[in-house]
Amino acid sequence: MRYTNNFALPCLIFSVYCLVNPQNHGLQKQTFSNMFVLEVEDNIAAPSQFPGNTEQQHTPATSHSHLNGSSTPVRSNGNLSSINKPRVYTERDYLLPSMLYRSSSLSRSSTEKDTNVPGPPSETICSMVLQILLPFLLAGLGTVSAGILLDFVQNWEVFLEVSEIFILVPAVLGMKGNLEMTLASRLSTAVNTGKMETTREKWTLIVGNLSLKQLQATVLGLLASLVAMLLGWMAEGTMPLNHIILLCSTSLFTAFITSLLQGILMVGVIMGSKRLGINPDNVATPMAASFGDLITLALLACSSQWFYCFMDTYPYVLYLVDLVLLCLIPLWINIASKHPATHILLRTGWEPVITAMVISSVGGLILEKTVSYPNLAGILPYAPVMNGIGGNLVSIQSSRISTNLHFTFSPGEVPVDRAGCFNPCRTFFGSGANHRSAKVLLFLVIPGQLIFILAIHLMKGAHTLPSALFTFLFIFASLIQVSSLLLIADCLIHLLWRKQKDPDSYAIPYLTALGDLFGTSLLALFISRLFVCETFLYLIFDMGVF
Q: Where exactly are the structural domains of the chain?
């Protein structure tokens, strides 16, 4: 065994330190043995090549701290490692933990953060608004179109005969949104933290995440149909077998096709944002929902009507669709398991999306019961807008906070102002970028919903503007929904990070599902009260509700 000369200076310093502090020699002897007994290969470069042009690299960069008795992974420079994997380092890195030399120049240099790791692009409030505004408006127009489409297809034969499809609509739309936004949030974080710099890293991460997404879409599509069947059976007391098969085929087919198409589109948006120097956190999640709701709802309506036509004459078509899509599950598992990040999510990524699907299904049950009253059926065009806009805005904030935590803190560590009890005022009042973005997102609700309400009335062919009372109550309900979601997001994401869970995979499903539940509930509550008020006003001022 032989050592290169670059070990001489640290060894000499360590020896002097042990002579000056003999009482700690026994404890640090073990540290010394663990830190410096390194076997050097025979093909290591000659000592004369150091320190000028050496490119030698070693991988055992993490060790367990023996000074504090904990097993927390630390980097070779003494800092906590942001991931539980060895970091590749060169011989220029200091090998001793900084805690051994708290007062030396080594500690000052070793505690500095790596400066070559790319971070999110710097942005002002103006640039933030400009980056968010266009995707936000596109997403809003997509949800407006979805609402108009839902208002149109509610009179189709399949919707009249199989009313459980109304329960399936929020569940499938919410599931699609959850999968798209978690994919967008994960890839945005990977781009901003420099994990997609090489071609191999980029494509391995993309293929693994798309395979995981297809697996989740297939499983959740099946579960969504079963939940819709259960809730429909509890409400009606009966459920024919052919309706069950129709719900399963429609949900599986819609989830699979839309997940594949929008996943590919999402990858293109994120990589394009990186090339243009735009923060993907501001663009990716709203673009994921821009026309996703419209495409998903159109495919859901068309496939359900198509399968309904085959249900009595060619029922084997429905069984064949279910069988083919379910048989692809082992393929997605095999591909996703080859990437470490998605391999972990194969075991841990199911809880949030399944819980979110159940929450969205409850919102769908509320929607079904609301539209069953003829006087309240007019809320259908507004339900996707209310739910979609709230989910889009909170997903932007969730992705931004998650990226900041990944880039700044190690899992389990939180900012000082989040270490104690949660204070709602900190969400909107502060000097940080996330505080500013929370205020910007809340401010966008008022002009955004005004534009979307007007767009709905124009697309419906209405010749009169919506009543002032309806507009006020709709915007007020939307403000309550979005502000509540932003507060919950701030608390939930830091709580998940403290528990060492990835917010990119856990937070957005809960938040968008709560957005669906809050939006549908508030809309049904306000519209039902509004109908009573405007019925009285109609008799006096000849005003209409919608």
A: 5-110, 125-541
- Percent of residues in the chain assigned helix, strand, coil, to nearest 5: 75, 0, 25
- pTM of the predicted model, to two decimals? 0.62
pLDDT digits (tens, 9 = 90+) for 416-442: 666 666 667 777 776 666 778 888 888
Joined together, the tokens standing for residue 519 give: 């939006």
Between 31 and 474, residue with greater pLDDT? 474
| Coil/strand/helix, residue 264 | helix
Sign of CA dihedral 438, 442, 443, 445: positive
Look at phi and psi of residue 243 and say left if phi exceeds 0, alpha if psi is from -120 to 50, else beta. alpha
In SS3 terms, 421-438 reads as: CCCCHHHHCCCCHHHHHH
Integer Cα distance of 126 and 460 in angstroms = 34
Can you list the alpha helix ranges (DSSP code H) found in 314-424?
316-327, 329-336, 340-348, 350-371, 383-408
Cα–Cα distance measured from residue 496 to residue 499, given in angstroms and rounded to the nearest whole number: 5
With H, G, I as helix, E, B as strand and everything else as coil, classify residue 193. Answer: coil
Beta carbons of 503 and 405 less than 8 angstroms apart: yes
The answer to whether the beta carbons of residues 233 and 206 sit under 8 Å apart is no
Q: What tokens does 108 get?
A: 């000052």
